[in-house]
């Protein structure tokens, strides 16, 4: 357990007022976000059949919560880690056209998460995916989409300021683009997380690009599953978060793999055995749309816009008693 306790923390809003602000942010953001990216709201599963290969493997070490069902024989059912692969398949199944997309509420359990101010075992985010052309699988498509998402977040800051002026946390006016290799070159003696903090503190808001592959040092900045993001065309949106003196990640996203990129990345990850799954076969045969997509943390966004010290202030979850006691003593009211 790792907990940052800000000195003289003032939550500004009561628990009841915070709940009203959470509802406002979630409802307002998803409507504007969907409109700006031409996304339709869809329902999505909370669990999938393990045999489908649709669950997100994250960095490869986290184990999903699993169970069996009375009417499903011996099939293993897994609670999703995210809907990264399911969304792309849904675009095909539901007949979405060029530059059309979907977004959905994604609720997941990541039981192996290290709990801290930002991380909970319960994950709630807007998962989204959009159809693009094959020749749009490039950096400009990625950057343009990132700028649109940043614009919507900035607009939400103004909306929250209008409704809750005493609570809004002000954000920078610009997002900057930096690669993981540039970070390693600039801060060679730092850990990846220390590099993220250093560059985000310097620039305010950063889209950190090219996550998953090995850097010149031979090390990876961070792990990424090999079968959905193209590691050359992905990244995270990071804001410098003054209340905790640390960067906060709001979104992970990217252009999705085509057949060539998926095969290369599966080989690097020694995960060619996944090619038996229907999703992977469709990617290899190009029988599934080319897409861009990602996730935007709902509780993280509320935390950012309201200047909260702990994600548990905007999300009901389970925490160690030691963390609960320390938070209560510091005026941090966990839901």
TrEMBL record:
Keywords of the record: Amino-acid biosynthesis, Asparagine biosynthesis, ATP-binding, Cytoplasm, Ligase, Nucleotide-binding
EC top class, as a word: ligase
Residues annotated as domain Aminoacyl-transfer RNA synthetases class-II family profile: 23-320
UniProt entry tagged with the keyword Zinc-finger: no
The EC number(s) this enzyme carries: 6.3.1.1
Transmembrane segments: none
Annotated metabolic or biological route of this protein: Amino-acid biosynthesis; L-asparagine biosynthesis; L-asparagine from L-aspartate (ammonia route): step 1/1
Keyword field contains Metal-binding: no
The reaction(s) this protein catalyses: L-aspartate + NH4(+) + ATP = L-asparagine + AMP + diphosphate + H(+)
MF terms in GO: aspartate-ammonia ligase activity
PROSITE patterns assigned: AA_TRNA_LIGASE_II (PS50862)
Localization (cell): Cytoplasm
UniProt cross-references to Gene3D superfamilies, sorted A to Z: Bira Bifunctional Protein, Domain 2
UniProt-listed InterPro entries: aa-tRNA-synth_II (IPR006195), aa-tRNA-synth_II/BPL/LPL (IPR045864), AsnA (IPR004618)
Family: Belongs to the class-II aminoacyl-tRNA synthetase family. AsnA subfamily.
PANTHER family referenced in this protein's UniProt entry, alphabetically: ASPARTATE--AMMONIA LIGASE
Annotated HAMAP family: AsnA
Protein name per UniProt: Aspartate--ammonia ligase
Gene designation per UniProt: asnA
């Amino acid at each position: 357990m790792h907990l940052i306790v800000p000195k003289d923390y003032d939550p500004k809003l009561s628990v009841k007022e915070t709940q009203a602000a959470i509802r406002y942010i979630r409802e307002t953001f998803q409507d504007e976000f969907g409109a700006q990216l031409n996304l339709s709201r869809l329902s999505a599963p909370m669990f999938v059949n393990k045999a489908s290969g649709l669950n997100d493997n994250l960095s490869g070490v986290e184990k999903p919560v699993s169970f069996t069902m009375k009417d499903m024989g011996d099939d293993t059912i897994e609670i999703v880690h995210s809907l990264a692969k399911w969304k792309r398949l849904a675009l095909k199944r539901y007949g979405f056209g060029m530059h059309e997309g979907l977004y959905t509420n994604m609720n997941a359990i990541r039981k192996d998460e290290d709990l801290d101010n930002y991380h909970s075992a319960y994950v709630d985010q807007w998962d989204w995916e959009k159809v693009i052309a094959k020749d749009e699988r490039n950096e400009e498509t990625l950057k343009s989409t990132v700028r649109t998402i940043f614009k919507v977040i900035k607009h939400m800051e103004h909306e929250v300021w209008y409704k809750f002026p005493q609570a809004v946390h002000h954000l920078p006016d610009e997002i900057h683009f930096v690669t993981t290799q540039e970070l390693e070159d600039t801060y060679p003696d730092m850990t990846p997380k220390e590099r993220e903090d250093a560059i985000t503190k310097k620039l305010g808001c950063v889209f950190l690009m090219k996550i998953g592959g090995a850097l010149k040092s031979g090390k990876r900045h961070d792990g990424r599953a090999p079968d959905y993001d193209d590691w050359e065309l992905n990244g995270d949106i990071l804001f410098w978060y003054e209340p905790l003196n640390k960067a906060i990640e709001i979104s992970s996203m990217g252009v999705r793999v085509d057949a060539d990129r998926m095969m290369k990345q599966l080989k690097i990850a020694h995960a060619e055995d996944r090619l038996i799954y229907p999703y992977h076969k469709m990617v290899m045969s190009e029988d599934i749309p080319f897409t861009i997509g990602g996730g935007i943390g709902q509780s993280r966004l509320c935390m950012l816009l309201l200047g909260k010290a702990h994600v548990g202030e905007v999300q009901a979850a389970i925490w160690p008693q030691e963390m609960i006691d320390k938070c209560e003593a510091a005026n941090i009211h966990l839901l």
